[in-house]
Specification:
single chain; 8 helices; alpha/beta; 213 residues; 5-stranded mixed β-sheet; binds 1-O-pyrophosphono-5-O-phosphono-alpha-D-ribofuranose; 6-stranded mixed β-sheet; D-Maltodextrin-Binding Protein, domain 2
Length: 213
């Protein structure tokens, strides 16, 4: 293993907040970091290499050890059990998982209500706990479409500002759980690069704690 720390970053909306947090922790990330289309970015001065992954894939890179560390949403961690350590709640990208649908909608008429979601694991266990039998339909995005075009009676999805639900005439029925981004670590990396990782964790937790005050 090199002494470079490889960090899997989620592309998209979490990226800016995560980069901001690293900068506040004193890591000097070049300005082009934010605009680049490159998928691997090296920052030799900080002995860091970043890989830019789809949020759902971050934990896969960390579990397989090709990234030492990753920033992953709690939603992703709940959906698939991974052999990684979750070491710090970064308290960024706050949102929640909820059940939503059309207000008093007539639905699909199915015996077991159909639930569309990107999170089949979370949705199944939620409805099992509620004692409700449902049929889960897995989608990869634009979940709010499903009740609008008659594919599903309800959805289980992330709510952040609530705009997507509102602009599509959907209402929230139940909140399932709160979500924030977490710092995750590969167990072998934690043993091999403990000093570097401990330093990163303590610098980030100082920022997170400071911001919580
Ligand atoms: C997420 C989520 C909702 C939306 C919620 O989708 O699945 O659709 O954001 O945000 P809001 O409450 O602020 O409107 P995302 O934009 O990640 O894309 P996706 O549809 O591909 O999942």
């Amino acid at each position: 293993m090199s002494n470079m720390l490889t960090i899997a970053m989620p592309k998209g909306r979490i990226f800016d907040e995560a980069a901001d947090l690293l900068r506040k922790a004193g890591y000097k990330l070049p300005p082009e970091f934010d605009e680049s289309r490159k998928l691997i970015l090296e920052v030799p001065a900080e002995k860091m290499r970043f890989i830019l992954a789809k949020p759902m894939d971050v934990a896969t890179y960390v579990e397989h050890g090709v990234a030492d560390i990753g920033i992953a949403g709690k939603d992703v961690m709940l959906e698939e059990e991974r052999d990684v350590y979750e070491v710090l709640d970064l308290k960024i990208s706050e949102c929640y998982l909820a059940v939503a649908g059309l207000p008093g909608g007539s639905g699909t008429g199915a015996v077991a209500p159909k639930v569309a979601t990107k999170y089949p694991g979370v949705a199944s266990s939620y409805f099992r706990e509620q004692g409700e039998q449902v049929e889960i339909i897995k989608l990869n995005g634009s979940i709010e479409l499903a009740p609008l075009i008659g594919l599903a009676d309800r959805i289980v999805d992330i709510v952040s500002t609530g705009r997507t639900l509102k602009e599509n005439g959907l209402v929230e029925f139940e909140k399932i759980c709160s979500i924030t981004s977490r710092l995750i670590v590969n167990p072998v990396s934690y043993r091999m690069k403990d000093e570097q990782i401990d330093e990163l964790v303590s610098r980030l937790s100082a920022v997170v704690e400071g911001e919580a005050l």
